[in-house]
Amino acid sequence: MGDFKNEFSWSVSRDAAFKECRRKYYYAYYGYWGGWDRNNADYVTRTLYVLKQLQNRWLWKGSVVHHEIERVLKELVTTGRLVPFEKSVERVRYMMREGFRYSRDKLYWDHDGSMKDKTALFEHEYETGTPDEVWKKNYDEVVECLRAFYESPVLEEIKNTPHDKIISIESMNGAYFPFSGDKYFVKLDLAYEKDGGIEIVDWKTGSSAADDFQFRLYTLYAARELDAPHETISLTEYKLQSGESAVHKFSKEDLAAAEEYIKNSIQEMKDSLSDPDENAAVMKDFPRTEDEKTCAYCNFRKICFELD
Ligand code: SF4
Questions:
Q1: Pair type for strands 166-168 and 175-179
Q2: Mean pLDDT of 51-77
Q3: Which of 132, 157, 201, 277 is most deeply packed, by most CB within 10 A?
Q4: Is 189:65 a contact under the CB 8 Å cutoff?
């Protein structure tokens, strides 16, 4: 795996890391490279790779819900059968219990190779002493989110949508698309053709405010890659925890502004590289943030201040 090239590709999360702390951005997109090879990676690279995988309990909740929804929808589309809600909850309970034990025992440090499907929780790595009732609440919220998904009108709609009209059910993987000589990354929860247009669905598991820019990016993807006129693209955001939903539509000008934003963000990221053509970076060019609050919740804080 070490021979893969670390190619540049833009994403919303990359942009967020770049804005939050340059050093964090360096660790997460350059310093970690090759750290999946437990036996051959050096200490720093290996540590950065493992720490990069940590998610806090809220992110974990989101990834479990997205993973299970993806599974239910894919089964529905391929077999025409809907997994009963109780069965889905049982799968999730098993997945979370196993993941929790794995993480609590910090077994992720022993894993060789990609950690894509491994659970590594920030609370365990940093021994935050999170009480059992907090973990229980997290699990209960996963079940509530799943229930809201089962009660949403989307399931009925997908049942009645011909197979070939489903464009994407890709919560966990996503894909790269060309952008002015570079690439950008998009991960759509669900997209399908409806009434001559495109319907995009985004599941939200937290209570944070809507991510307008991310929605613009999804719409931009549909307009560019699926060649759909912007007025025929509709994005529905389902806030699974509250059971609310909201429809978002964007104008041509909104999408042009999103393209411009990405272009500028890419330029700024490339300006920070020692060799943009090779996507090569040098750690000292990426200063640490001075905001201690950002450090308190940062995956890399364990090793950050040991480094130059
Ligand atoms: S610990 Fe602080 S300075 Fe270091 S990478 Fe994280 S946020 Fe940046």
A1: unpaired
A2: 95
A3: 201
A4: no
Distance in angstroms (rounded) separating the CA atoms of residues 200 and 212: 14
- Residue 1's pLDDT band, with cuts at 50, 70 and 90, is very low
Query: If you classify domain 156-250 with CATH, what class do you get?
Result: alpha beta
**Whether residue 2 has pLDDT greater than 60:** no
Q: Which of 283, 294, 299 to mutate to test ligand 1, by most ligand atoms within 8 A of the CB atom?
A: 294
What is the distance in A from the centroid of ligand 1 to the CA of 25? 9
- Residues 220-239 have pLDDT tens digits of 988 988 888 999 999 999 99
295 CB near ligand 1 (under 6 Å): yes
Q: Show me where the domains of the chain are located.
A: 22-153+285-304, 156-250
